[in-house]
Design a protein that fits this description.
Layout (H helix, E strand, L loop, with lengths): L19 H11 L6 H14 L3 E5 L2 H11 L6 E6 L5 H8 L3 E5 L1 E2 L4 E2 L1 H11 L12 E8 L8 H11 L2 E5 L7 E2 L2 E2 L6 E5 L12 E5 L2 H11 L7 H6 L19 H12 L1 H19 L5 E3 L14 E5 L4 H13 L5 E2 L17 H9 E4 L7 H14 L4 H5 L1
Parallel strand pairs: 2-3, 2-6, 6-7, 7-10
Antiparallel strand pairs: 1-11, 4-5, 8-9, 10-11, 12-13, 13-15, 14-15
Length: 401
């Protein structure tokens, strides 16, 4: 929808430099277009950037999450703690393995899983042997989400995991390029996942990556992503004599194409610049919105030493869903697309068990996301700021006061 000024700003827009076509053409010339040498090259680039020891490309972050559960032998009869304030794929990745996602509330100041609430949830709902008092399931792990790129407190969850003997995993779908205590997300040594969906900071159109610290787990993930074949196509191609694969495990078709990987290689080369552009836009928003009585902006905790601003949220201090939706409607009339605050997974019909998570629900109802992507011009950024101010009923005189 365009305004009278002709301005129409989408919520997100993937950035391509044009250099991606060079590597795509290279892939097409070789004829190796699926799970080949370009994928291996992209995996190496991701390891180099994040500090992860091993990277296993997958068809999406969701399938990478499923692989994370499988390599850690999480399945039927197991529970995994995760936030509900996340895209539904977080829970789906757990459920695909046969395990049950157990939703715990967030800290509204960080939008991430609340460590204190997590510890209290374990103490209240599980025996000393970590058996669920209601279902008999065994608690196996915690899936921490770095929501919209804001690092969660990994060290705090590591303490909880050590106390109870749990596996820590990271859903880093939004967080490539962000840093926790000066280290890139992916360098913790815990199993993590990345997304390359068009809404993310870098994109391959679609695709994901599993980050691992142990070679046996990485090798198992490689087998599982390719139908369970004991020998990869690439290994057979490089062999000097015929090799024959066997299928000892139930595998999946979770492979990434070399066409996607070619795009990803060029995207990761631009990652620092892409983040700088997003931070620049966010800085303008922070300056404009921090003093508005009606709004609250997120101030990341000290341990989040770099936030990639995958998304830019604002929160209404007063009111709830009705007021939030009205603000979104007004912004749409101004030519500014928005997205509602992340819908709680535990309220979706497929997961609704009557659970109440006050901080998650309140945060979702009063929050919305504004456009933030590298192609935003100075004029568009100024228009978004002005539109928010106008929709909140602010006059120029009030803004100058």
């Amino acid at each position: 929808m365009e305004t009278g000024s002709g301005i129409s700003i989408p919520i997100a827009k993937p950035y391509f430099s044009g250099d991606e076509t060079e590597l795509i053409a290279e892939v097409m010339k070789t004829g190796w277009v699926c799970q080949g040498p370009m994928v291996a090259r992209f995996e190496a680039a991701v390891c180099s950037y994040t500090g992860a020891k091993h990277a296993v490309a997958a068809s999406s972050c969701t399938t990478a999450l499923h692989l994370a559960m499988l390599v850690h032998k999480i399945g039927h009869g197991d529970d995994v703690i995760c936030p509900s304030y996340s895209f539904i794929a977080t829970a789906n990745g757990i459920r695909y393995s046969g395990a049950v996602p157990q939703f715990v509330d967030i800290d509204p100041a960080t939008l991430n899983l609340d460590p204190q609430a997590t510890e209290a949830f374990i103490e209240s709902n599980y025996t000393d042997a970590l058996v669920n008092k209601q279902t008999g399931n065994k608690l196996k792990g915690i899936l921490v989400v770095h929501q919209i790129g804001i690092p969660a407190d990994i060290d705090r969850f590591a303490e909880i995991a050590r106390r109870f003997g749990l596996i820590v995993m990271e859903d880093s779908a939004c967080a490539i390029g962000s840093k926790y205590k000066g280290k890139p997300i992916g360098a913790s040594g815990y199993t993590g996942t990345l997304s390359f969906h068009p809404r993310k900071v870098i994109t391959c159109g679609e695709g994901g990556m599993l980050l691992l610290s142990e070679e046996p787990l990485a090798e198992m993930a490689r087998v599982l992503r390719a139908h369970g074949a004991s020998i990869s196509d690439l290994a057979r191609h490089k062999a000097g004599s015929p090799l024959y694969e066997s299928y000892d495990l139930l595998g999946y078709n979770y492979r990434m194409t070399d066409l996607q990987a070619a795009i990803g290689i060029k995207q990761i080369e631009m990652l620092d610049w892409l983040i700088e552009k997003r931070q620049s836009v966010a800085a303008r928003f922070n300056q404009a919105f921090s003093d508005l009585d009606e709004l609250e902006v997120i101030k990341p905790p000290a341990y989040a030493s770099l936030w990639n601003y995958q998304s830019y949220p604002i929160m209404l201090k007063q009111g709830g869903r009705t007021e939030r939706d009205e603000l979104m409607r007004k912004l749409q009339e101004e030519g500014v697309a928005t997205r509602r605050g992340i819908p709680p997974i535990h309220k979706e019909p497929v997961y609704d068990r009557g659970l109440t998570l006050p901080a998650t629900e309140r945060t979702s109802e009063r929050s919305l996301f504004l456009p933030n992507f590298p192609q935003l011009s100075e004029v568009e950024v100024a228009h978004i700021i002005g539109a928010v101010q106008r929709c909140l009923g602010k006059t120029p005189a009030q803004l100058r006061a």
